[in-house]
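Work Package 3 (structural annotation) set out to generate three-dimensional models for the target panel prioritized at the project kickoff. During this period the team completed the workflow that converts sequence records into discrete structure tokens, so that structures can be stored uniformly alongside our sequence database. As a representative example, we reproduce one entry of 115 residues exactly as it appears in the project archive.
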Amino acid sequence: VQLQASGGGLVQAGESLRLSCAASGSIGSINAMGWYRQAPGKQRELVATMTDRGTTTYADSVKGRFTISRDNAATMSLQMSSLKAADTAVYYCNAERWGPFAEYWGQGTQVTVSS
């Protein structure tokens, strides 16, 4: 599975941004897709995930502001609203296969929120 993330950029606090992740390869084997982020000097952290059954998980810090969606079998999006400076990070697209377990990562896309 190959993942290609896009949509990052520079925005002002309070604005919105939409990230997209396009998957290719054995996409039928994917059980979950999600977004993680890593800010400078910090560990990579979960932002949001969605299983192939539609179950979603969000970090507390983004609940009510970010929405993850699976547009089709190959494309996932993250709609980010009311962005804060604390959301500044490199955002990574992730996909998982659960049996046997495998994890895939896309290249990061930079999101910078100016206050």
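DSSP finds no helices and eleven strands in the chain.
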